[in-house]
Design goal:
Order of helices and strands: HEHHEHEHEHHEHEHEHHHHEHEH
Helix content: 40-55%
Largest sheet: 8 strands, parallel, barrel
Strand content: 15-25%
Radius of gyration: 20 Å
Distance between the termini: 24 Å
CATH architecture: Alpha-Beta Barrel
Structural class: alpha/beta
CATH superfamily: Luciferase-like domain
CATH class: Alpha Beta
Shape: globular
Strand order of the largest sheet: 1-2-3-4-5-6-7-9
Number of strands: 9
């Protein structure tokens, strides 16, 4: 029997491309000023480690997540770093005027040439009340998303009479995001790179990414499919240490299920004071998949994905202690 990477075409001997997804978590016991102050230092740290991209998400009406304005955070991070690509993971396009987003990301590209990624999603990133407040009309739904993507690309290519200012600016790199086969098919149809959100999808990442690759239409924009998998990884020197660090996000998700509220990320000490049963944790990690363990364990857990040909991972690490969070990214970069 051949090893997995020879069976499926993935080269397990190659170093992985690694990037970072930051939800900018609000931390229990900290003010928003203090929690958001962690964003730029983390970006600088992973840039030094050699990570390829640093993306921030868009979420609304969630007290535990500080990334309600990704375009503001992108500028903040890009100003603090030198070469890492910075972008949105993603802009929830139905929430915004397409023309305005074209101008926002052209401005960012003009400020930080060759470093801006525009990741696009169709989910609201919020509950129904926030969605209605953002979109201002019940007629503005995610069903319009494919047309909005097309319009955005036309603005960025100057194919419409109305110009997105500033003009004569290179096109930011557009990525399609998704947690289902819808985004995969749309990305393939529009010749865009694709990022699959494995960390909150119930669908098998390998199947969806392979669907994208099979369906991809080459173009002048992108000649071959380009895919990455976003995933939640908590890594420490030992499995037991990593499992302890994971208690914070386990409790955060458990309370979200029970109360419907997204509160600041609890410390490990706070999480240990709660009782989350082994069955609850198993259910939580099935709903919000998470890879937890030492570098050796993480390597084994990612092996099927690497064997399938996925070689670019965008890593979310919801860890309360910021030194441990940085160490998690260090261990991944050193060992994967």
């Amino acid at each position: 029997m051949y090893p997995l990477w020879m069976q499926y075409g993935g080269d397990m001997t190659q170093k992985l491309n690694l990037s970072v997804l930051d939800l900018c978590p609000m931390l229990s016991g900290e003010t928003p000023y203090e929690s958001l102050a962690h964003v730029a230092p983390l970006a600088c740290h992973v840039e030094e480690l050699g990570y390829e991209r640093f993306w921030v998400a868009e979420h609304h009406d969630m007290e535990g997540i500080g990334s309600s304005s990704p375009e503001v955070l992108i500028s903040h991070v890009a100003a603090a770093t030198k070469k890492i690509r910075v972008g949105s993971g993603g802009i929830m396009l139905p929430n915004h005027a397409t023309y305005h987003m074209a101008e926002v990301f052209r401005t960012l590209e003009a400020l930080y040439p060759g470093r801006i990624d525009l990741g696009l999603g169709r989910a609201p990133g919020s509950g129904s009340k926030a969605t209605h407040a953002l979109r201002r009309s019940i007629e503005l739904s995610a069903d319009n998303f494919p047309q909005e993507v097309e319009d955005l690309e036309k603005y960025l290519r100057d194919e419409l009479p109305l110009k997105a200012v500033p003009v004569r600016v290179n096109r930011p790199e557009i990525w399609m995001l998704g947690s289902s086969d819808f985004g995969a098919r749309l990305a393939a149809h529009r010749s865009l790179p694709y990022a699959f959100a494995q960390h909150f999808s119930g669908l098998p990442a390998i199947d969806v990414i392979n669907l994208y690759k099979r369906s991809f239409r080459p173009s002048e924009i992108l000649e071959a499919p380009q895919a990455m998998m976003a995933c939640h990884i908590i890594c420490a020197e030992t499995d037991s240490e990593a499992d302890k660090l994971a208690l914070s996000s386990d409790l955060s998700f458990a309370l979200f299920f029970k109360t419907g509220k997204n509160n600041p990320l609890p410390s490990v000490k706070e999480a240990e004071a709660y009782t989350v049963s082994a069955m609850e944790r198993e259910q939580l990690r099935a709903t919000f998949p998470k890879f937890v363990g030492s570098p050796q364990t993480i390597k084994k857990l990612l092996a099927p994905y690497r064997a399938s040909g996925i070689d670019h991972f965008m890593v979310l690490s919801m860890i309360y202690d910021q030194k441990a969070r940085k160490k998690s990214y260090e261990l991944l970069k050193e060992n994967l």
